[in-house]
Amino acid sequence: MLTKRIIACMDVRDGQVVKGVQFQDLRHAGDPAALAKRYNVEGIDEVVVLDVTATIETRQALAHTISAVAHEIFLPLTVGGGIRTEDDAAAAVDAGADKVSLNTAALRNPDLIATLARRYGSQAVIVAIDAKRQGDRFGVFVRSGTADAARDAVEWAREAENRGAGEILLTSMDRDGTRAGFDCELTAAVSDAVNIPVIASGGAGELAHFTDVFTRGHADAALAASIFHFADTGVSDLKRYLQTEGIPVRL
Asked: What is the pTM of this model?
């Protein structure tokens, strides 16, 4: 079994890390650079920075925030939010990003996936999918979860892979911020449909939830925010626990 990755996500608004529940009621969670420095010491595998209002406000992700975070870590950094064009992606990479995450822009212009994959390699292009249960399917939402894209999450993940995406960042909107556990049904449905890594996001609240998403959800990586930001769960404690559960992780 390949090593599973633990990823910390920082949702950034106005230069500060925020966290909400189901994409609403955002509260302050700290300074991006300070949190990144802590995670680097604690042994997180990767960091994701998402500028949560960049798309709605029609602007690029904040370059100074990306640069400040990149200065504090020595591990892969993914940046998303407001990346609508090849120039936007180049600005994020120039500021220190190792990978870029596309969400709304990928649905509006799927050719952008292939364009960036040719320029930076598929490993540097992540397609983020914000999904919500709609009856017996999972629908895709865009613009920070405010608009229904009228697409099926599983079908869109397959298309994203075919267009050159190297990973899928899959967020359950139903579970986001609830700490009720990852949506393993959603994660497994997408993981089993593609041949690229799937990062599970939304709902982490306790150690057992990570074991669950790696086993039942077939995830390649698990992303969390609030339980790390507010020091409810230590990264090293989580990794030691996963090892006892037979989940291979990097210590």
From this structure: 0.92
What are the beta bridge partners of residue 152? 139
Catalytic residue list: 11, 130
CA-wise closest residue to 92 among 51, 149, 133, 152: 51
Cα 30 to Cα 247: distance, rounded to the nearest angstrom: 30
- Closest-CA residue to 220 (of 248, 243, 239): 248
pLDDT tens-digit profile, the chain (251 residues): 689 999 998 888 877 887 555 444 454 557 889 988 988 999 999 999 988 655 545 445 578 889 999 999 999 999 998 899 999 999 999 999 999 999 999 999 999 999 999 999 999 999 999 999 999 999 999 877 788 999 999 999 999 999 999 999 999 999 988 899 999 999 999 999 999 999 999 999 999 999 999 999 999 999 998 888 776 778 999 999 999 999 999 98
3-state secondary structure of 83: coil
Which domains are present in the chain? 5-244 (3.20.20.70)
